[in-house]
Amino acid sequence: MRGEMPEGDTVWQTARRLDDALAGPPLTGCDLRVPRLATVDLTGRRVLEVVARGKHLLTRVEGGLTLHSHLRMDGAWLVYGHGERWRGGPQHQIRAVLATAERTAVGYRLPVLELLRTADEDRAVGHLGPDLLGPDWDPDEALGRLLADPSRPVGEALLDQRNLAGIGNVYKCELCFVLRIPPWLPIGRVPSPERLVAVAKRLLEANRTRRARVTTAHARPDRRLWVYGRAGRPCLRCGTPVRAADQGRAGQERTTFWCPVCQPEPPAQDPSR
């Protein structure tokens, strides 16, 4: 199974940890280890807040600046106390260090790291749809974007951050299972599609403060998710072996998990209706 990007709930948790660690006191250290930012020094400035926008992180610094980062597959921001040993990886994987007198935030393997004017944040995140965990959440707008291409498979439509921001491959699979629809069903044929955005919102809200993601009613590690990662194992609802296959355009495929019994293809619509 391919590695997966952190999803909206995980990025939201990362933003909260960074905000708790950095916001308020002046920065006592700044080291941005990418060529474009090698001469940038934010020492002495205060971090105003760190917020998530979908899967993006925006660290807003006084003076009208924003440090924009994205974790993609392998990136991570870890927070250490004063004098604590850094354990996130070797030195050559560090891309950013932001420190206050008490805490240090270290960004490892960050594939995206850029400094923007805060007024220009839309350059980085303006293309995103409504954020499931953000103040801009608008279910009607999200639904309209999803249905704009009715022939698109629902699994692909859910992963497109231009439709709604925050869903990754885990939630895509789990949402389709909960709503009993196959991930390859055209989005225009999904019964009551407004339920997609409502259930997505509910699942991410429920998990944004949990250490372990849960979409079932079970706390056991092997029963927290309905189908994701369970290829060949019994469906938790009906016992049928869960199936897995690649889905998506060439070069952008993700492994999709589904139960062929619980998520049957609905009958074609009667063209006379």
Automatic annotation (TrEMBL):
One of its GO terms (molecular function) is damaged DNA binding. Residues 6-107 form the Formamidopyrimidine-DNA glycosylase catalytic domain. Residues 226-264 form the FPG-type domain. It is an enzyme of class 4 (lyase). Coiled coil: none annotated. GO terms for biological process: base-excision repair. CDD domains: AcNei2_N (cd08971). Signal peptide: none annotated. Belongs to the FPG family. This is DNA-(apurinic or apyrimidinic site) lyase. The lineage of its organism: Bacteria, Bacillati, Actinomycetota, Actinomycetes, Kitasatosporales.
